[in-house]
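Troubleshooting entry. The earlier prediction with zinc ion gave an output that would not parse, so I re-checked the input for stray whitespace and re-submitted. Clean input:
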Amino acid sequence: MKLCRFGEPGREKPGIVAGHERLDVSSAVADFNEEFFGSGGISWLSEWLASGANNPPRIGPSSRVAPPLARPSKIICVGLNYREHAVETGSLLPPEPMIFGKATTAMCGAFDPIILPRGGEKTDWEVELAVVIGRRASCISEADALEHVAGYCIMNDISERAFQKERGGQFIKGKSCDTFAPFGPFLLTADEMPSTDGLSLMLSVNGSTMQNGSTSDMVFGIPFLISYISRFMTLLPGDVVSTGTPSGVGAGLRPPRFLAAGDVVEYSISGLGSCRNEVMAHSQVAR
Ligand code: ZN
């Protein structure tokens, strides 16, 4: 199944993507949240749809594409997890996964604008494969890790490099501004993703390709990452592990190239659809 959500921020409802249509399943489930993922909601919804007795209404094409999961308890990102990206940042490959947090309030939809933060000057892109947890994971083994995955979607780990690297403290400061985590456009359930090896990740800015990588280039694989993170914290159903970005970020270019108002960022991962965000200055948005 392809899970999606629709509607305005704060009033999103759950849906599914069926061919070229989106169907409203809010009569069957409250939301794609911790309770849904943690209580077998994916199999339940799949059976509800397959029974044929229910006829979920179509979602209007103009309805906003919201993030495909409700705001989770945490978003954990993995840094320097693609070999060439480590090289472009001038970093050595980390001996253990380099993990950091991203505020969950940064979430937005796959076609929402990215808003440059007040005082930001080096806002950058990072297309990533995001893993959504389906079962509580605490100190789990690598062999068991994939049983704890609900599904996969695209996340753009938008990063304000000046906040991240020049203002002291931890990465979370440059990773967490509002709109810095576009998700979507849908969440593909794990049963429909036989392998996450060899998925291609692409990102362009104003039509010019910037990132063109493959998940085969990951330093630490997904089962290892989930097992590893679960030794330091409990991952809850609905939590997100974002698995790092391939090379081609703006900070790695010579000279560096960062986002400006009016830029259009488009990105995709094979099997997971594509996203498109226009970049806006904070002064263009009433907040
Ligand atoms: Zn990242």
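This one parsed fine. The radius of gyration is 18 Å.
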